[in-house]
Amino acid sequence: MSGGGTILAPLDAQDLRTRGLLHPSGTNGAHRLHRRLVNGDSDEEYKHISLDVPLASPFADEAYVAVPDMLISHQTLQYLGLSDSKAAELWDFWCHWDTDDGIGRWEIDEDCDMWWEFIDFAVNNTAKYHPDVDDESDDAQ
Question: Number of structural domains, the chain?
Fold first, then answer.
């Protein structure tokens, strides 16, 4: 089970495959995307990596990164850096969320202006809350 749409729009994925910049990863639910195309800053960050690196090249592991096919998926949790066991635990919880108690996956926060999203779910179920130990405001002079 996965949802939330694909990471890449179908025409974009087709164009990237045609240009040799997107390949199957060998991992179910993921593709290998050239690192220079991962985000808005990656072209500058990885400018030393040629866009012409073939997948069979010994440099392919440096040039390509596995990205999930689906935005909301077990693979996305792994992509975010969770261990296999933690990703499996959270994915199982997400897929089998008990809505009988009136609490669903998509809840409005107390300000009624933000919806609970998958990334929030992942962060809130993995990160520990570290309150500011300083009683003084950061704005105090």
Answer: 1
Smallest CA-to-CA distance from 71 within 63, 81, 82, 80 is with: 80
Give the range of the structural domain holding residue 17, as residue numbers without chain letter: 3-124
17 lies in some domain: yes
Q: Would you call 111 exposed, middle or buried from its count of C-beta atoms within 10 A (0-12, 13-18, 19+)?
A: exposed
What does pTM read for this prediction? 0.68
Q: Report pLDDT digits (tens) over 51-86.
A: 999 989 999 999 999 999 988 888 888 888 888 999
Does residue 137 lie in a domain region? no
| 57 inside domain | yes
- By C-alpha distance, which of 60, 48, 44, 51 is closest to 20? 51
Beta strands in 12-125 (DSSP E): 22-24, 30-34, 64-68, 70-72
Sheet holding 64-68, edge to edge: 22-24, 30-34, 64-68
